[in-house]
Amino acid sequence: MDLSVIIALYNERESLPELLDRIRTVLGSQLEPGLQKLPDYEIIFVDDGSTDGSWDFIAEQADKDSRIHGIRFRRNYGKSAALYCGFGAAQGEVVITMDADLQDDPAEIPALYRMITDGNYDLISGWKKKRKDAVLTKNIPSRIYNATARMVTGIRLHDMNCGLKAYRNEVIKSIEVYGETHRYIPYLAKEAGFTRIGEKPVVHARRKYGKSKFGLSRFVNGYLDLLTLWFLARFGKKPMHIFGLFGSLMFMAGGIIAVWLIIQKIYWQSHSLPYRAVTDQPLFYLSLLAIVLGMQLFLAGFIGELVSRNAPERNHYHIREKR
Questions:
Q1: Euclidean distance between CA atoms 233 and 227, whole angstroms
Q2: Domain residues for 179?
Q3: Within a domain: residue 315?
Q4: Do residues 141 and 261 both lie within one domain?
Q5: Are residues 29 and 151 in the same domain?
Q6: Which long-range contacts (CB under 8 A, 24 or more apart) does 262-267 make?
Q7: Are 12 and 40 in the same domain?
Q8: Nearest to 174 by CA among 115, 77, 88, 85
Q9: Helix 16-29 vs helix 109-117: angle between axes, to the nearest 10 degrees?
Q10: Is 113 found in the same domain as 177?
């Protein structure tokens, strides 16, 4: 199998017939310059618990065409879960993901396919250079989000969350998409050792049917997910390096301040100088708080090390070659 096209969807019944026709047209008649033959392809629809009849259309098309496959969730789990199941089912050497709302143009598929098969990239992310969304609610927040993602991940992509992406099959089989981490698949791929990541400007159209399934909450959730992925990438297998470090520093700082206050009080008392009781000084209680928090952080790191040591994937590494 040369190509798998994965389409995660939720209540997009109106757009599915047109989307499928356009994909078939592109893959059945257009040959991108540089391609010697049309790819043998499959289309995988992942229905994320739709209630508008989307699955009925998918099931009908799958019965007619053996290249069309459908996966149906009993309820809505989210795009990450849909992509995870789609990745697991994909057989193509090249895998392309796209949204079902007709904002992604299927005409981009041949060029994305060629960029992967040329061997220069592990992953290509689409870049909606000219967005057709509302400026205040989507364009500006998206720019801020992408700037933050570039700074944290070190991946110079203009549009990390674009649904139109192409991958080598090895990439999708080496990463785990969960929660709402579909926004950061390039970062997951980078941490798995796939560093040849590029982008391609793609056409972005206005939504033709229905309405967006993502609200402004996605920016808050996206920020929290980014912090989680960054932390796990840096300290997931060595939690003591972060918790133990800060715990030790806080414990020592609190201990030094407490001892200094006690010695100061003894010195003033022994020299008949006016002094304040140690327990009357706010700094003493702050030092005790630092000691307690330091111990808790250190123990958190120690417990994290025990969990990491007993995790089944503790020695799971991504191997490129073995001879």
A1: 10
A2: 3-235
A3: no
A4: no
A5: yes
A6: none
A7: yes
A8: 88
A9: 50
A10: yes
CA 238 to centroid of chain Cα atoms: 21
Distance CA 12, CA 17 (A): 10
User: Which CATH number covers residue 11?
Assistant: 3.90.550.10
Give the integer Cα–Cα distance in Å for 122 and 203.
Answer: 22
Cβ atoms of 296 and 250 closer than 8 Å: no
The token duo for 200 is 């391609």
Predicted TM-score (pTM) of this structure: 0.78
Q: pLDDT by residue (tens digit) across 147-184?
A: 888 888 889 998 888 899 999 999 999 999 988 889 89
The answer to whether the CB of 314 falls within 8 A of the CB of 308 is yes
User: 101 with 31, same domain?
Assistant: yes
- Residue 105 contacts by C-beta under 8 Å, 6 or more apart in sequence? 22, 202, 203, 205
Residue 282 within a domain: yes
Domain endpoint, select from 174, 200, 235: 235
Which of 235, 252, 280 delimits the end of a domain? 235
Residue 142's Cα: distance from chain center in Å? Answer: 15
- pLDDT value for 147: 86
pLDDT value of position 306: 85
Within a domain: residue 321?
Answer: no
> Domain tally for the chain?
2
| Residues 75 and 180 grouped into a single domain | yes
42's tokens: 């499959």
First to last CA, the chain: 26
Report which residue type is found at 230. Answer: W
99 and 223 fall within a common domain: yes
| Contacts for 228 with CB less than 8 Å, ≥ 6 apart | none
Higher pLDDT, 74 or 132: 74
**Nearest residue to 308 (alpha-carbon basis) of 241, 237, 222:** 237
Choose among 24, 10, 20: nearest CA to 53.
10
Q: What is the mean pLDDT of residues 110-139?
A: 82
Distance CA 165, CA 8 (A): 13
Phi, psi of 167, rounded to the nearest 5 degrees? -140, 155
C-alpha 42 chain-centroid distance: 25
| Percent above pLDDT 90 for the chain | 53
